[in-house]
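BUG: 3D viewer hangs when loading the predicted structure for this chain

Environment: internal workstation, default settings.
Expected: structure renders.
Actual: progress bar stalls at 90%.

Input used:
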Amino acid sequence: QVQLAESGGASVQSGGSLRLSCTLSRYTYETYCMGWFRQVPGKEREGVAAINSDGMPVYADSVKGRFSISLENAEKTVYLQMNGLKPEDTAMYYCAAEGPICVVTIWEDHYNFWGQGTQVTVSS
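Structure tokens produced before the viewer hung:
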């Protein structure tokens, strides 16, 4: 069974930085897409950023210029570097994966594999 394990969530002050990581395991193909999503209680889950195994990224407008997604292919690990954090970035952040055929998108319906989430809290 494919597994995703996220880490890196924490509480930081506004303007701070965090790096989230997510490792895809028990996945036997070499092509895949991975994405980061976030959700606040009572609201719909929102796509943040995604990347494919070729390294092509996509971002939500709300995080462009502040967040950066990258991939360590050998480890099947995706990173989300978050700079200039704002209180509105507070959410549970989830990692998702799909493959071997996939679309690099922040639309959650394209992903079948999900992690348990890691909490990011930004205080003003």
